[in-house]
């Protein structure tokens, strides 16, 4: 799920020179082609193949859904302009994130459903009906995405990329990926890939990362074993930011090892076991990792790759 407010900023192409010389963390394949977006009749939807939460969304009394599909998704929406824009982004993020994780998507035929709620009232009513944490702005559940997205909001929100990262990880690594890695990877992908999407379309956009303060820093032994979201809102913010930083740190140290770490964790390894398998040459144990990671996580210098 995505919790805190987006910090992403877009700048028109004419302001591009302002950002010249800034080192961007890249998100590859930014120029991939856009996917076709075709309407579907309501009668063609297979309700029997939908999850209970998808049925709750589909039967939402305040949403008069239209339906359409693209290569990898089925969309439910009220505004075709918003939905068409979302389909272009969704296909882009899906392709890029799967490629980054070196996963072959060509054999995955079942399309994921994306529900685009058009008002705060509708979204809140759905959260209540589905018993979803009221702090969420979007959620991935059992291969489907549920978002509040309408009109101008399209240009100022990383929620879609974040939830698609969850979808890709869920599809190709299963449900065993621990909470910090699930949220850290989703947040990191969202920040980088959304910036790349707009750079490819002529905007000056760069990834914006948030620092973690030394006082709020969560020790790795705690962060990497959390099974539930922190109840306290400030700790929740730190949890997301620090998880993103740990993901970015480990990816920067060794990209291939990061894939091996995710694989081992998804298969049920404890963090320290997976760390030893994937990064044993660099970090002998959790303390060795923490000695290098903590200064990185609490540095206010951005970008601050190790
Ligand atoms: Zn999330």
Please provide a written account of the structure.
By secondary structure, the protein is α/β, with parallel strands linked by helices. The chain has 2 domains: 13-199, Glutaredoxin (3-Layer(aba) Sandwich), CATH 3.40.30.160; 220-297, no CATH class. It has 10 helices and 6 strands. Strands 1-2-3-4-6-5 form a 6-stranded mixed sheet, sandwiched between helices. A hairpin with a 3-residue loop joins strand 2 and strand 3 (73-77). It is globular, with a radius of gyration of 19 Å. Zinc ion binds at residues 1-2, 162, 166, 183, 186. The site of zinc ion has 6 residues, from helix 4 and helix 5.
Compact summary:
With 306 residues, the chain is an alpha/beta fold.
Task: Write out key terms for the chains shown.
306 residues; alpha/beta; Glutaredoxin; 2 domains; 6-stranded mixed beta sheet; 8% strand; globular; binds zinc ion
